[in-house]
Design goal:
HD/PDEase_dom; 4-stranded mixed sheet; EC 2.7.6.5; TGS-like; ACT-like_dom_sf; 29 helices; 710 residues; 6-stranded mixed sheet; 47% helix; alpha+beta; GTP pyrophosphokinase rsh
């Protein structure tokens, strides 16, 4: 355990004017209060508050925050109380300790409605003094570093809570280093095999290519010296979880990922940052679409940096971040930079964000939210998202989370513009409404009188503001239609478990789900805010535990007219569990597409042909074809092993086609018959973990005509 003298020395490193006597008294008081208490590991409990305080010294925080860390568990776990802490260490520290105590008592991983209420309390605690969150995040970081002493089930619970709430919160506050460490510590618990697989591949890669980081760092320093730029260069391999997430997002295996190394260049001035960018781009080829200038367009938490990705002669990509020392301080500590010290004085960093303004900006759109689910969704989206910056035709900047679409952009301007949106132009070119916006694009929203929000927009919009506005409008405009569709969904759901969706049954379900009445329940069911499974489970939980018989093909899709047939579109091969939409064909019934299918752009101007559809929420038979594209090693027995693995996942291979044969690898398309999207993901994860599989991804044939489905 770190001694009081050593802790004070850590503080003195950045704040020589620290009140050493006050910190020593807090250390002694905390040690006395926790005397006799032990952690799961068997160590004295006070080792934990001291470690939390040490983590906060790395962020160069003020004396009050360090003392709060030493005392953060005293009010809850010892005979100390608020009055005693206030008397000995002042009202400021007492309020901070009390705030951390209240935050600790929130069960942030509980059920959705309760979770929404707790998020409100979380934001209230943050709004009073953000240092409460800084202590809590450091508390969670030390608990995750020592998590192995906990029971396995407790480890999983803490790791999931960390991954869902605390890691994204640290990132939103600009503390990227803490976010990465929290994610990786949680990943170690939640998926140890996946993490070890990535580490093994890293070791293999280093053995094959040598010390890439040292080589590229040297090359960058040489280019900067040649250009007369004084700067520091640091390189590192990305964390295993960061690599894993990229593999999932891009649907690629490790061998196909290129930008697994990151480099950071710290310059003396802002002008040098741009000169550095020029020097880097002169030496290495820039990757199109991977440049972001957060210096001219900083993030809301004060983050400023230039990001670019470059490609070397061997085709390997590396990410480069360029920023000044002051920008780097904010990038490391985020919103905490407001309290940090440098050389004994409060840091006068011009880039540090005022925490009060940051909190106000984060919470302003939630103040009027009455609906707990809407609030929870909005706050999670706002808190966990990165940002892109787009422009209106007049040149005004509109900030949106990454992945935002023109619909989100329209609602960001004004709810009225969003409701009336019929199309959009991006950089002067007409694009579908589900297009993902990129940094620096100019977006022109096309509106029309009489237009109203469409239900399919809920699948396209990603911001809480847009989704909430769309839901409200849909409830008002299309309430009767949703109630009608909801009745059909409820009827099918209850029939599946051998019951009837009577008015009394639906009233009971509404009561259990805390909804006003059965009409509200049916409207939400029809608008996809509730699933039939959730409604049935509210009344007959014991019947929904076992899914029973598989749903016959003729009843797999809900939302069709009586007697109307359907076919799955061969271009996107939608699976149960995916969001879907139907396109009508005269004399051919309805063709079902995945909501993100490229082919849907062909029907953008024919809204009358679109049909709102849902997959039945029960268990489906394994009869739905999907195609996987695999790249495998050309060794004896590999293909047989792959086929065996697929069979072990209860997936039937219906066709196999070789599309490329090379001396060292094969590329092939495998058609498999599956139950649903979950089975597909499970199968792909298992294949990705196989050492002889270089790459696996879902294959969709864009050349297939939707009409061919008939």
């Amino acid at each position: 355990m770190i001694s009081a003298e050593d802790l004070i020395a850590l503080v003195r490193n950045y704040n020589p004017k620290t009140n050493a006597d006050r910190i020593a008294r807090a250390y002694e008081f905390g040690q006395q209060m926790h005397d006799g208490q032990v952690r799961h590991s068997g160590e004295p409990y006070f080792t934990h508050p001291v470690a939390v305080a040490a983590i906060l010294t790395e962020q160069r925080l003020d004396d009050a925050t360090i003392i709060t860390a030493l005392l953060h568990d005293t009010i809850e776990d010892t005979k100390a109380n608020y009055g005693k802490v206030s008397e000995l260490f002042g009202e400021e520290v007492a309020k901070l300790v009390d705030g951390v105590t209240k935050l600790t008592n929130l069960q942030l991983s509980s059920r959705e409605t309760k979770q929404a209420e707790n998020f409100r309390k979380l934001f209230m605690a943050m709004s009073k003094d953000l240092r409460v969150i800084l202590v809590k995040l450091s508390d969670r970081l030390h608990n995750m570093r020592t998590i192995k002493a906990m029971r396995p089930e407790k480890q999983v619970q803490k790791a999931r809570e960390t991954m869902d709430i605390y890691a994204p919160l640290a990132g939103r506050m600009g503390m990227q280093w803490m976010r990465e460490e929290l994610e990786d510590l949680a990943f170690r618990v939640l998926n140890p095999e996946g993490r070890q697989s990535i580490i093994r591949r890293f070791i293999t890669l280093q053995r094959e290519t040598g010390d890439v980081i040292h080589r590229i760092t040297g090359d960058m320093r040489f280019e900067l010296e040649k250009a007369g730029i004084e700067a520091e260069v640091f390189g590192r391999a990305k964390k295993p979880y960061s690599i894993w997430r990229k593999m999932q997002e891009k649907d690629q295996g490790f061998s196909r990922l290129s930008d697994i190394y990151g480099f950071r260049i710290i310059t003396m001035t802002e002008e040098d940052s741009y000169r550095t960018l020029g020097a880097i781009h002169q030496r290495w080829r820039a990757v199109p679409g991977r440049f972001k200038d957060y210096i001219s367009q900083p993030k809301s938490n004060g983050y400023r940096s230039i990001h670019t990705t470059v490609s070397g002669r061997d085709g390997k990509r590396v990410e480069v971040q360029i920023r000044t020392r002051q920008m780097h301080d904010v990038a490391e500590t985020g919103v905490a930079a407001h309290w940090s010290y440098r050389d004994g004085v409060r840091s006068e960093n011009p880039f540090a964000v005022d925490p009060a303004k940051w909190i106000a900006n984060l919470t302003e759109q939630f103040d009027s939210e009455d609906d707990h689910e809407d609030f929870l969704e909005a706050v999670k989206l706002e808190m966990y998202s990165d940002q892109v910056f787009c422009f209106t035709p007049k040149g005004d900047v509109v900030k949106q989370p990454r992945g935002a679409t023109p619909i989100d952009f329209a609602y960001a301007i004004h709810t009225r513009i969003g409701h009336a949106c019929v199309g959009a132009k991006v950089d002067g070119i007409r694009v579908p409404l589900w297009t993902r916006l990129k940094n620096g694009q100019s977006v022109d929203i096309i509106t029309a009188d009489g237009q109203t929000p469409q239900v399919s927009w809920l699948e396209i919009a990603v911001t809480g503001k847009a989704r909430t506005a769309i839901r409200r409008a849909l409830r008002e405009v299309d309430r009767e239609r949703f109630i009608k569709l909801g009745k059909e969904l409820a009827r099918a759901g209850f029939e599946h478990v051998g019951r009837k969706a009577t008015e009394k049954t639906l009233d009971t379900a509404a009561k259990h789900l805390r909804l006003k009445d059965r009409h509200e329940l049916l409207a939400r069911l029809g608008s996809a805010e509730l699933t039939a499974h959730e409604v049935v489970a509210a009344v007959y939980p014991e019947l929904t535990k076992d899914d029973g018989d598989a749903i016959p093909l003729r009843r797999a899709v809900i939302g069709l007219e009586p007697g109307q047939s359907f076919d799955r579109a061969p271009c996107c091969q939608p699976l149960p569990g995916e969001r879907i939409v139907g396109i009508t064909y005269r004399g051919k019934g309805v063709v079902v597409h995945a909501i993100d299918c490229d082919r849907l752009s062909e029907f953008e101007n024919e809204p009358r042909r679109w049909v709102d559809l849902h997959w039945h929420s029960g268990t489906h038979p394994a009869v739905y074809g999907a195609t996987l594209e695999l790249t495998i090693g050309n060794d004896a027995g590999v293909l047989g092993r792959i086929c065996t693995l697929i069979g072990e996942k209860k997936a039937n291979i219906s066709n196999l086609e070789f599309v490329d044969r090379k001396p060292d690898f094969y590329r092939l398309l495998i058609n498999v018959e599956l139950r649903d999207l979950e089975q597909l993901h499970s199968l792909m994860l298992m294949l990705e973990a196989e050492s002889d599989v270089a790459a696996v991804e879902r294959y969709r044939d864009r050349t297939q005509s939707a009409v061919a489905a008939g």
